[in-house]
């Protein structure tokens, strides 16, 4: 019954129940619901409704967040709310104690140095040695070990949910040199959530036809700018 009732509005409550019951099917169902807009969930007060075990279950999921900083901010967000609910003083020390259990799920090494400095350092929960070690590893300095508490993963999370993807196909009889083709998305509504200046990622270009020469294929947008490589 609960599996059919999962929605963005009640995910925290159902995930708490699923974690208590150790119901993997229901946990995965909650994760699927959050895949559509994980950033909004991690950065909203809603995350504070999760209990400790449920938060850990959520962090184990490979949710398509836009940046690893979102995961870190979500943990900090939850920790502040948890301390507040216990009427505990919110200090850098108490925050560190709260987040310690979850730091292993943050892939700091997938962040840029700029993201680490702008979004992580201001929290002031790390020691100088920890900061130095993480920054050196992000920069690729060899033979600098991370404390065992931190993840060594350099693998980016899956940034796209299937509902955010579409396929463009060019279907013509023959491709000739310097030919220009104009394609449209099969589902124009896919663009409604894209803000001006957003980057559109092209993961695959399919051509159904005969390519009679070897050369370079350049993909540009309507203004003549090259698409950014994935």
TrEMBL record:
Residue ranges annotated for the BACK domain, each copy included: 11-121
Highest rank taxon of the organism: Eukaryota
UniProt-listed SMART domains: BACK
InterPro entries membership: BACK (IPR011705)
Name of the protein in its database record: BACK domain-containing protein
Taxonomic source organism: Meganyctiphanes norvegica (Northern krill)
Origin organism lineage: Eukaryota, Metazoa, Ecdysozoa, Arthropoda, Crustacea
């Amino acid at each position: 019954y609960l599996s059919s009732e999962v929605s963005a509005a009640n995910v925290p409550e159902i995930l708490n129940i699923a974690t208590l019951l150790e119901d993997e099917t229901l946990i995965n169902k909650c994760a699927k619901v959050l895949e559509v807009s994980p950033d909004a969930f991690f950065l909203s007060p809603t995350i504070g409704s999760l209990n400790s075990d449920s938060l850990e279950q959520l962090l184990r999921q490979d949710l398509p967040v836009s940046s690893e900083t979102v995961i870190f901010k979500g943990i900090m967000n939850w920790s502040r709310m948890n301390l507040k609910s216990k009427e505990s003083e919110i200090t850098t020390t108490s925050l560190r104690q709260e987040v310690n259990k979850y730091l292993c799920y943050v892939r700091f090494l997938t962040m840029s140095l700029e993201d680490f400095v702008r979004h992580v350092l201001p929290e002031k929960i790390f020691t100088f040695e920890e900061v130095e070690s993480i920054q050196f590893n992000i920069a690729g300095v060899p033979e600098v070990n991370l404390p065992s508490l931190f993840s060594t993963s350099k693998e980016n999370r899956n940034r796209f949910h299937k509902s955010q993807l579409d396929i463009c196909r060019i279907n013509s009889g023959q491709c000739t040199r310097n030919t220009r083709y104009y394609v449209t998305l099969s589902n124009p509504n896919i663009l409604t959530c894209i803000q001006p200046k957003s980057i559109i990622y092209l993961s695959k270009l399919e051509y159904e036809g005969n390519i009679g020469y070897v050369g370079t294929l350049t993909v540009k947008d309507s203004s003549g700018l090259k698409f950014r490589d994935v």
